Automatic annotation (TrEMBL):
Belongs to the transposase mutator family. It holds the Pfam family Transposase_mut. Required for the transposition of the insertion element. It comes from Thioclava arctica. Keywords: DNA recombination, DNA-binding, Transposable element, Transposition. The keyword Chloroplast does not apply. This is Mutator family transposase.
Amino acid sequence: MTISKELLDELLKGCERPEDLLGDAGLMKELKIKLMERMLGAELTAHLGYEEGKDAPPGQPNRRNGTASKRLKGQDGEVPISVPRDRDGSFEPELIKKGQTRIDGMDDKIIGLYAAGLTVRDIRSHLEDVYGLQVSPDLISRVTDAVLDEVREWQSRALERMYPIVIFDALRVKIRDADSRMVKNKAVYVALGVTRDGVREVLGLWIADNEGAKFWLSVMNELKNRGVQDVLIAVVDGLKGFPEAITAAFPDATVQTCIVHLVRHSLNFCAWKDRKTVAADLRLIYGAPTADQAAAELDAFEEKWAGKYASIAPAWRRAWQEVIPFFAFDPAIRKIIYTTNAIESLNRVIRKSIKTRGSFPTEEAATKLIFLAIRNFEKGGRNVREWFAARNQFAIMFDERFNA
C-alpha cells in the first residue's frame, strides 16, 4: 500500500520538533493508537454485520455497547486503547485478544533478555530504562515459564532412527534444592547427535544429582522410546555407569572416551612449565596409527613421567578399553571424535548464558535458560565440517547399519 504525499503532508502539519513525531505524545504513537482502534472497530463491524452509525440487520439483537479502556505494554511504553464492545459479550477481537496486555513482541524481548542471562531484576530494570515500562516480576516469570511448554515438546519430539555419533557431556550448575533449600552443584547432561547427513542436533538435556548406570539407562531408554534404534559411536567423558547403560540399550554401539577430556584431565596434574611437553608426549599416544603402537607409546610415557606425574598413565590405562576403539577409525572420523568441536561450541554458548547467575532457584529456571541457549546454538551453522570424508568411512565400516 502506498501512502500519498498529500496525506503525509497533512499528517505532519504541526510537527516542528523530533518529539512532536517520536515523543511520548507524538504523532507516531497517536497514529498507532488510532490505527489499532480503527482495526478493532472493523473487526466488530464484521462480527455484528453492520457499519457503525447504521441500522442493524432485521433479527439482529446484538448491538454495539460503547468501549472499554485497556492499557497495553509495548516498545513505546504504555499505550491506552479503547476497545469496542457488544451487548452480549460475544465479540472476540483478533488484533488485541481478551486478556492481552502486551504488544510489539514484548514477550519475545523478555525471553531474549532472559536467554542472554539477565535475571528477573535485570530485565525489569532494562525494560524501565529503555522503554519506560514498569513490569512486575510475576509477569516476567509467566512469560519465561511459557518456554517450559516448548521444552517439554522439544524433549519428547521424535528422533532419527540412527545417529553415527552421539556425544554425551556434563556441565555443573548451582541449583537450590527444593527439599533442603540449600544450593547444590547439580549436573546438566547434554546429548549432541550427528545425523547421517552431518547435521548437529541436540537430542535432549537432563538434570540429575548423581550420575550412575541407573540414571544413564533411563536416558538411553528415553532416546529409544523417541525413535533411536542404533548409535554407531557414543563419545563420553568417563561418565560413571555409562558404558554399561549404552551397551544395554544399544548393544552394537562403540563406546569411545573423549580424548580431549582425557588429555585435559591429564594436564591438570602437571606444573605449568611441563604442560607443553606432556601434551606433546600424550599426542604420540592418541596419534599412533594402531592400538598396539599406542600401547607402546603409553609405556614410554609412563617410563618418562612416572616419577614426576605418577597418576597420568594409570588414568589412561583405566580408560583404555574405551580409548582403543579410536585407533580402528580413519583420520576423518578420528578428527570429529577427538576435537569434539560440536560439543565444545555448544558448551561455550551455555556457559555464556549461565555465567552471570550465581545459582538458580529451581531446576525449571535452569532448564529454561539452558534450553534457550541450545535454541540459539542451533540457529547457527549446524553442519559438521568435512563430513563428506567421514560419511564415506562410516558407510564402509558400518555398512548395513549406516545405510539401513
